[in-house]
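The aim of this short unit is practical: by the end, you should be able to scan a pair of folded records and say something sensible about each. We start with the first protein, listed as its amino acid sequence and then its structure tokens.
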Amino acid sequence: MIDHVDVLIVGGGPVGATLALALKASGLQVMVLEARHDFSRKPDPRTLALSYGSKLILERMGIWSALPQPTSIETIHISHEGGLGRSVLSAEQEGIPALGYVVNYAALDQALHEALLQSNVHYLTGAQVTQTRATQSYAVADFDFQGASHQVTARLLALADGGRNQSGVSGAERHVRDYRQTAVVAQVKTELPHKQVAYERFTPDGPVALLPSGDGFALVWTATPEAAEAILQLDDTAFMHRLHAHFGDRLGGFVQAGHRASFPLSLSYTKPVTGPRKVALGNAAQMLHPVAGQGFNLGLRDAWELATEILHVSPSNIGSAEMLAHYSSKRRMDTAGGILFTDALVRVFSNDNPLLHHSRGAALIGLDLLPPLKSLVARKMIFGARG
């Protein structure tokens, strides 16, 4: 087994796999260590709202064509419960085919997995990383694979494992804010067709998002932990009735509900994201609230920008302090913008303070009446801070 590479990636999920595939034609030695060993297709209700910018990245790598039937989002309708304010974002107004696309998480994961298997990347599944460390000259990872212990060194170690590796970036701190919210996710169908429209409705307990998915919607219903637990216990009829009461009549009634799952919501981010010979990206760098669908798209841009940076330096400078400082500088505005934007939405719109109620409505009305501002918001959501 090879014991030294140019780039070592810990984590072969969508972000780590994207980084590896973006480097596959570079001539560099790239290794991916992925803890999972079973990639058989299993039912998975999770969906991803990919921005148009993320679609372009996946297209460049030849992954987009392997995804089964992504559903386009051509319009986003934003409103808040109990108020008149609303705003509508439109792909046509931005001069692009779609604002985003809804894809199944498992389908994307599988497509990336198969692409890695067919590439020249050293791709090890079932590899359990036990420790990472770094010097000024190289990084080291110890891992267990096929019943034996191994060690590999690298010019650069990229942590894309969702933050599970405890020996992360040297000197970095993980900042966490618990929103005391839980997301309930499910596939649902409504009486009226979605017509490629996504809905984001803000309520005091948290946003309710309906994303067009196939002939129905992917639901992300944010609630307090106690309310979410009660929602999970409802039978399908009671669940759809309660969702209808919460969301309103815009799509008629809800006529079908699939399996429900839930997960807690918080904001967490690593600072700094780079250290000697190491860099954190994706969820290992930042985990955002799902409002506005920014988290995964931000992680994908991390991977693409890091690959671009690696390709722009000589092999001997990969992982150098200069290269990592340049990458960190390029990503700083996009990352900070994503964190501040989603955190502000949660704090302002998921709030029962009566003083904020009319301000929320006025903000949505103002956004709709100011096309340049609306376009700016849309393009930042689609392409990040550099949009």
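Turning to the second protein, read its sequence before its tokens, just as you did above.
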Amino acid sequence: MINILLNLYNFHEKWCFETLKDILKEEYRVLVIPFSFNDDWMKNDNEWQTAYNPSTGKYYKDIVIPFLSYGIKAENINWINYFSDTKESSKYKINNSDIIFFTGGLPDQMMDRLKEFKIIEDIENYKGIVMGSSAGAMVQVAQYHITPDKDYDTFSYNEGLKMITDFDIEVHYKETSIQKESIKKVLKEKSRRVYAMKDKGGIIINGDKITILGDVTLFDI
């Protein structure tokens, strides 16, 4: 498995393209898992279609265009629809993909829905590439933290996927005092280094090899 941690849907830009073009092959099949929505944002399939439908979806192009930049065909980009897919169809889609992509949003909601669909084991044993932006990066960390922001009032530690165990990440790093306090807290309480990724920053983990993309700061114990 290769893990790719990002902040935004901007991974076709100069700061990372030259590195990722050797990883994201044009023949690859992508599976997008947009499970990080708030229940208040999306309540039914009609609202899901408004967000992700290929013709009119508000977020469809933002997510798909970066993959097209690597030569991946739109018809090879599939989705799990929370409102119409089943556990069985989701497992089938996972097994017939080369890349899993987790969208941004709320990481704890994403983990709850992955558990609900009983696909966590399938993803943790995946042999392909697992990518994600923001919340989609956070859930790849076995125990990730949430820094207080507009969506979360308090700091918390949360259970992610059993993929990355030896470091934590701070997404959308803007060097704010609250972000710095959260990083210090993780360093002190968990004795784990933290990679703080600005919006043009990312990380590739391939076995024991870590490759930094763009603007990332390492905070070590």
